[in-house]
Structures are given as structure tokens and as C-alpha cells.
Amino acid sequence: MTREEARHLLHQLTTSESLLRHARTVELVMEAYAGKLNQDTEKWAITGLLHDADYQLYPEHHPNIIVEKLRELGEEEIAHAISAHYTHWGVPYNTMLDKALLACDELTGFIVACAQVRPQRLEGLEPKSVTKKLGNKNFAASVDREQVRIGCELLGVDLNEHIAFIIQVLQQHQHELKLQPQAGAQV
Questions:
Q1: Of the candidates 82, 84, 85, 107, which has an alpha carbon nearest to the alpha carbon of residue 159?
Q2: Which has the least CB within 10 A, 4, 16, 152, 158?
Q3: Rounded mean pLDDT of the chain?
Q4: Cα Rg of the chain, angstroms
Q5: Tens digit of pLDDT for each residue in 159-182?
Q6: CATH number of 3-171
Q7: How far apart are CA 89 and CA 164, in angstroms?
Q8: What was the pLDDT predicted at 184?
Q9: HEC states along 104-160?
């Protein structure tokens, strides 16, 4: 599967601007991690792009619909990683791809939420600010903090280093993601 084919599949299933942005942010982070870990950047990017593709139309069946479509297309490794991106589903973590998606999904969404409440958005966002907000259960309450912890543990990364890496990746794309500082914000 090419990235263009993956984008087409995503857009067949998802129209929500926030879900499309989440897909793009996880795509970018997964691609960057693949480069850092000497893995297949296209496969990792596609996995990030499609991990929630069926959520808007089929929330009660997520991720089974996208996993089934990927298996029909012969993309078993991507399908398995997507089927495992939440630990409560009971799917084993066999590969770095599986572990990386779990480690990047919730935390990337959380970091975007942190940036959105700051006038300077991603500029100057520090890992300590993100970890402080992680401790506030009322902030981005839908983010499962236990998934963040387990993901870091499985991927073998320090939480603060992981946060810093994700912030750096997102900063490189802040204009596309509409996460640049607001006009007049102090950076």
C-alpha cells in the first residue's frame, strides 16, 4: 500500500477535521520514529495515518473495520499494529511497530491538546509542562494516562525524552497542523 492509497482510504472513512489532524500528527510522529529507529518509514507512517480511520463511522466496531480492510489488502503487519493500539483489546505487542503506535497515539493527541490551550501553541512547550498536565486528570480527560505509561514502557523510552521528540516533530509541521503561535503571542 502506498501512502497515497492510505490517504484515499482514510478520506473514504473520515471527514472530521479533528480526526484527520490526529491521523496526520500520528503519521508524522510514527514516520520520524521509524527514521530514528531505522525502520520502514512508509509502513510506520501509513500505520499512524490509518490507526483511527474507522473511528468516525464505526466507533463501536473500531478498529475492526480498518483492520479487516487492511488484511484484505495484504497489509497484515499494519493491521496487527492497529489492532493492538489499545492494551485493553488484548492483542500482543510483537513488533516495534506495534509498540511504537501504542506509545505515540495517545501521547501525540495529548500534546496537541496541550498546545491548543497555549497562545504560543507548540513554541516553547516543554516536556515538564506536558507531564504536569498529564497529572491533571481533568485536562484532556479522555486521554488514557495508563496507555501513555505502558506505551513508553513497551517502546523502552523515557517519558520526558518521548514527549520532547514528539514536540520537536510537531513543531516542524506546526503551520500545516495549524499549531503555530497566535498573532501577538509571546514566544
A1: 107
A2: 4
A3: 96
A4: 16
A5: 999 999 999 999 999 999 988 887
A6: 1.10.3210
A7: 28
A8: 60
A9: HHHHHHHHHHHHHCCCCCCCCCCHHHHHHHHCCCCCCCCCCHHHHHHHHHHHCCCHH
Amino acid at site 3 = R
- Asked, as a colleague might, if the bond just before 92 is cis with ω within 30 of 0, I would say no
By CB atoms closer than 10 A (0-12, 13-18, 19+), residue 78 is buried
pTM of the model: 0.96
Sequence-distant (6+) residues with CB within 8 A of 162 are 103, 107, 152, 155
Is residue 97 within 8 A of residue 117, CB to CB? The reply is no
Could you give the count of Cα atoms lying within 13 Å of 114 in the half-sphere of its Cβ? 26
